[in-house]
Write a structure and sequence with these properties.
438 residues; 18 helices; elongated
Length: 438
């Protein structure tokens, strides 16, 4: 279904706005889509039919869908910029989107035949609250983040219950039609197992369910077993393996509205939790084909390649990601790419180029991430170039910017103390120092 024909159906292509570099920050386009939503809902639709047969034209749900994408866009900017004003704006947008989704979830229940719509609205509300929780954790509001996480799971459970009832109803209808042929076809299919048409509305709702459920299952499955009882007490289901399976299934539905985010999470899990470079490369290569201009996938792919020792290929991905992040609101992602490009040159021993890139990054970056370690790398570059006096200001910056409980920052602080205190060091010693963690 093309947006020009039905601009209120924001469930497939347009839900990818925050992942596709060509429209990564198209707030104007989102506003135009919202204004194009018709005032009157459609009379009926088939939840298991494809777009050609008509997806649900529900004004409040359509506007909520757009508002949630806009809020996630602001969330992305806030997470990258690490600025209080951006975080406050994103939290307000997410709160507004959640309230709208909750109202839509209740409103859809009054419309006969709109099976699946209440489930989608519940998942929209759950995701908005989940994004808010992550941002609150990021900004140090742990208790508020914990409460938001509990609310998000409660909303997600509502969506799962709505979806289960919808699928059971469809299964019962199929069983009734087939009763003349077999007596064993009368029981409903279990949740998520009902066969639905690819590209159908119900398939898009199920895709949202897989992402939400998979996220909670996997990441809460990281909690130590000693505390698992506490999670179950508040209704969580910490199960890492099933959660990973949900995320992979969600990412595998190529046109699902949450497939890109599930793909990013699956790539991150393969690279960081499973330490499986082959699996990570397979996932990254798949999304290189699906979204070849997405700065988010290019960035993560570059990281995977660098960890595997493929510096040139890694540099290429980071460079493409930086070029794709052309919108002003993506400035911090572009700076992160510039830093990673400097790291690639640093790892290759190209000290002049690495120093130039790292110095430029430190001058422009205003966040807390990266800075201490980048300053350490710049100091190493100066030492390798026999510019010992130039290294000292970078050493002081490391000690100033070091964050407690961050292993990379602590490592950098220890190493710059070595630079400060050791008067008679060889180039070989400095080279060994530079590669200690690579």
């Amino acid at each position: 279904m093309q947006e020009e024909t039905h601009p209120f159906v924001l469930a497939v292509d347009d839900a990818w706005l925050i992942y596709d570099a060509q429209v990564s920050t198209s707030s104007d386009r989102l506003r135009a889509l919202r204004e194009a939503v018709p005032d009157a809902p459609s009379a009926s639709y088939s939840p298991d039919s494809g777009p050609a047969a008509g997806w649900p034209q529900i004004p409040d749900l359509a506007r909520t869908r757009i508002d949630c994408v806009s809020a996630e866009l602001q969330w992305t900017v806030a997470m990258l910029s690490e600025q209080r004003a951006d975080a406050d704006a994103a939290l307000e947008a997410l709160r507004t989107a959640r309230h709208a989704a909750q109202e839509a979830a209740g409103g859809q229940a009054r419309h006969a035949g709109l099976a699946g719509a209440s489930a989608e609205a519940s998942f929209l509300a759950a995701d908005a609250e989940l994004f808010a929780a992550l941002l609150l954790f990021r900004t140090g509001h742990v208790l508020r983040g914990g409460r938001a996480l509990v609310r998000a799971w409660s909303l997600a459970k509502q969506g799962l219950a709505h979806l289960e009832r919808t699928q059971a109803s469809l299964a019962a209808a199929r069983s009734s039609a087939a009763r003349a042929q077999t007596a064993t076809a009368t029981s409903p299919d279990p949740p998520f197992e009902t066969t639905v048409s690819p590209g159908s509305y119900l398939a898009s709702v199920r895709n949202r369910a897989l992402l939400t459920r998979g996220f909670f299952r996997f990441f809460l499955g990281l909690v130590p077993r000693a505390f698992a009882w506490l999670l179950r007490l508040v209704g969580f289901d910490p199960a890492r393996a099933p959660g990973k399976a949900d995320l992979l299934a969600c990412a595998g539905e190529a046109r699902g509205p949450r497939a890109p985010l599930a793909g990013l999470l699956a790539l991150w899990i393969a690279a960081f939790f499973d330490d499986d470079p082959d699996a990570a490369e397979n996932i990254a290569s798949t999304w290189d084909t699906r979204l070849p201009r997405s700065p988010f996938f290019l960035y993560l792919h570059g990281y995977v390649l660098r960890q595997s020792g493929h510096n040139e290929e890694s540099f290429d991905r980071f460079e493409r990601a930086a070029n794709a992040s052309h919108d002003p609101s993506m400035e911090h992602l572009r700076l992160a790419c510039e830093y990673e490009m400097g790291w690639c040159r640093f790892a290759a021993g190209e000290w002049e180029d690495a120093l130039a890139r790292l110095s430029a990054f430190l001058q422009r970056f205003g966040g807390k991430s990266y800075r201490a370690y980048a300053a350490y790398q710049a100091a190493i570059c100066c030492e390798m170039l026999d510019r010992h006096e130039d290294a000292l200001p970078f050493c002081e910056q490391v000690l100033e910017w070091k964050r407690d409980h961050y292993s990379y920052d602590s490592f950098a602080a220890r190493k710059v103390c070595y630079i400060h205190c050791s008067a008679n060091r060889s180039r070989r010693q400095m080279h060994d120092c530079a590669y200690t963690i690579h």
